[in-house]
Design brief:
mainly alpha; 434 Repressor (Amino-terminal Domain)
Length: 92
């Protein structure tokens, strides 16, 4: 796995920025992906998560008209998150 670039914003920070830019509350985002608000908060704060979960959040933002450049940034951030699991309870 490539090391995270020091000047690249983390996935959670980027997700929060994009969510707010698209006028979504944490509750809106939680409903869009079928998760709890605490899951959105934890992910935005960099506490846990999976690559699959990150991808569901990116997809929810794409459905709201996410700018293609922003989508690429979110995809890049999701790809370097050191979570190690591909799904809840799954193996690396």
């Amino acid at each position: 796995m490539p090391p995270k670039q020091p000047n690249m914003p983390g996935f959670g920070e980027t997700l929060r920025s994009m969510r707010k830019k698209h006028g979504m509350t944490m509750g809106d985002m939680a409903r869009a992906v079928g998760e709890r608000v605490t899951t959105v908060s934890d992910l935005e704060l960099g506490r846990g998560g999976t690559v699959d979960l990150a991808n569901r959040f990116v997809q929810a933002l794409r459905e709201r008209g996410l700018d293609p450049k922003a989508a690429l940034l979110l995809d890049a951030c999701a790809a370097i998150v050191p979570w190690g699991r591909t799904s809840e309870g799954g193996e690396p």
